[in-house]
Amino acid sequence: MSVLTIEGRGNWRKLTLNRPDRLNAFDDELKSEFLSAIQAAAADSSVRAVLITGAGRGFCAGQDLAAVAVDDDGASIGATVAHFYNPLIAAIRSMEKPVICAVNGVAAGAGANLALACDIVVAARSAKFIQAFSSIGLTPDAGGSWLLPRLIGDARARAIIMLGTPVPAEQAEAWGLIWKAVEDAQLEAEAEALATALADRPTKALANTKKLLDTSFSAALADQLEREAESQGHMARTADHKEGLAAFMEKRQPGFKGV
Ligand code: T3D
Questions:
Q1: Which of 59, 65, 116, 163 to mutate to test the pocket of ligand 1 (most atoms within 8 A of CB)?
Q2: Cα of 64 to ligand 1 centre, how many Å?
Q3: Which of 12, 127, 132, 222 is the right S-S partner for 169, CB 3.0 to 4.6 Å?
Q4: Structural domains for the chain
Q5: Residue nearest to atom 19 of ligand 1 (CA)
Q6: What is the mean pLDDT of the chain?
Q7: How far is CA 164 from CA 7, 60, 105, 118, in A?
Q8: Ligand 1 environment, Cβ below 6 A
Q9: Is the CB of residue 165 less than 8 Å from the CB of residue 132?
């Protein structure tokens, strides 16, 4: 059985982490297959949205701790972060199409931060997010120290990282850590409907929106205004913009092509 299921769904792709007996923790095989699948989805222009989820009762328990040598001198952990988690998170954030995460159960350590790095996160009500790092004497990785303060503010980020306190899905929604908590039985349908809707939207505009939002907390307003103007200049020349305008004038639904 493959550790990663890849399903084409018309103009979007679903990736399911598939090591349910380990709560989909990342061993070397899953790391390699998942990073390749993310890079392949990014490079394929026929894929206009990506949905990530997990098989079984967990979403992802982060690094497979059984695979971490107890006498490790730190070199392999550093290498894992540099060669897997960092490129993975960078690939998701820079992917020029929306990435949706359906958190079907517990998301811990790098598994939690993988979810939070996605553009839109929907979680089952039974799911929870755990910054598990400090409980095993580590510090956040997979972008956690960057994402969390931006999403929920410094006070909450500091506490959940230092204490390793699980954040239930409903609390995560109330804090703005995720987009939405839904009934467990509805998660798959809700997430797939989101992927379908996003894949039919103007992909280039969504890609540039990601770029703009990623710089919004670090850029000065004047610089961000310039970036917005530059982006609108590019968008105005896209076929999807012309289609959006035409559809509005003709009082019909637009048929965006992602170009
Ligand atoms: O190389 C590096 O280390 C650097 C990278 C670090 C990135 C990181 O992600 S560090 C953080 C690693 N993750 C964790 O510390 C989480 C460890 N897991 C847990 O704390 C708990 O399992 C959960 C809170 C996530 C879930 O608890 P619960 O009670 O629902 O399930 P469980 O019984 O603990 O787990 C079910 C099985 O999955 C169990 O195996 P068993 O007893 O049925 O044979 C458990 O050992 C296994 N499992 C859970 N998490 C991991 C794991 N096996 C390997 N690695 C895991 N991370």
A1: 65
A2: 7
A3: 127
A4: 4-199 (3.90.226.10), 203-250 (1.10.12)
A5: 61
A6: 96
A7: 34, 16, 17, 21
A8: 22-23, 25, 61-66, 68, 77, 80-81, 106, 108-110, 130, 132-133, 136, 138, 141
A9: no
Nearest residue (CA) to ligand 1, atom 22: 61
Calpha distance 63→83 (Å, rounded):
13
| Per-residue pLDDT tens digits for 201-224 | 999 999 999 999 999 999 999 999
Predicted TM-score (pTM) of the model is 0.97
Q: Which residues, 6 or more positions from 38, have their beta carbon under 8 angstroms from its beta carbon?
A: 15, 50, 88, 91, 92, 95
d(CA 160, CA 107): 14
Q: To which residue do tokens 């409903």 refer? A: 170
Tell me how far the alpha carbon of residue 4 lies from the centroid of ligand 1, in angstroms: 18
- Take atom 29 of ligand 1 and give the residue whose Cα is closest: 106
Q: Which atom of ligand 1 is nearest to the CA of 62?
A: 9
According to DSSP, residue 100 is labeled E
* Cα 63 to averaged position of ligand 1 atoms, centre (Å): 8
| Rounded distance between C-alpha atoms, residue 12 and residue 46, angstroms | 8
For 136-194, how does the pLDDT look when each residue is reduced to its tens digit (9 = 90+)? 999 999 999 999 999 999 999 999 999 999 999 999 999 999 999 999 999 999 999 99
